[in-house]
Amino acid sequence: MKTVLFNTHDLVLLITLYQCILFGLCLLTFKAGNKLSHLLLALFLFSYAAIPLDTLINYGEAFRSFTLGISANLFYIFGYAYWLESVLLLFYVRSLIYRDFRFKRQDLWFLMPLALYFVYHLDTWYLLSDSEKVLQLQQNYAGNEALSQRFIGLGRECFRLFCAILCLVELRRYQSKLKDNFANLESVDLKWLTILVVGFLFIRADAILVSLALFSSFEFNHHIDYELLGLISNYTVLVLISVLIFFSLRFQTGLSGIRQQHRLSDVMNK
Length: 270
Known about the structure:
Elements: H1 8-29, H2 35-59, H3 61-70, H4 81-97, H5 112-126, H6 130-139, H7 147-181, H8 191-219, H9 226-251, H10 264-269
């Protein structure tokens, strides 16, 4: 088989996908430490593995045609991970900093955007015939997307950024509570987790720039290099996932959790 399916930039996505799946499977076998944190981190990594796959299917020049030859139903299905990974990262952070972390009914609100996106796809994709799906995919490219799809993409990235900001706020609240309870704050190392959260916040901010660049290029005829912004995000994700794997194994069991009653959402609901 001599057909070239991936270019150099695609390899970055493949490496990210491989790292996420491999480490996620390893986490599921760990018996020591916080089992819930291991599970949430594994689910986060699995969801993040779906994102580069979705990118390859929808935007990989050769791989898109290859996937279309297999089945049009493979398109968009991995895109649901965008709505999940940011929520799973938030839950993972909470499971680390709250020693009595448990899911609460109000946490279901974080799944509402995913549910609404599925309802939207029912009418615009899943109820179409196979021939209609193929025709839509053949006509659908970056410059020809419907305006509604651009707004959904922008809303999705804003939601991901919102969850990243919540992660950062939760960490700040955790640090503040530690100052009240521990005289020697230096004994508790939060730097690795804060750096990771800020890193993912940067990625989501970059994704918003990509969405705005698409609006600018195709709706207002003012070209911005959205492809370069997307590549920067892909390479940054590879670095962050590598850092996440290293530091989560080394330091996550060393956090001194506070009680869940101090959780941000609980305070907001009072």
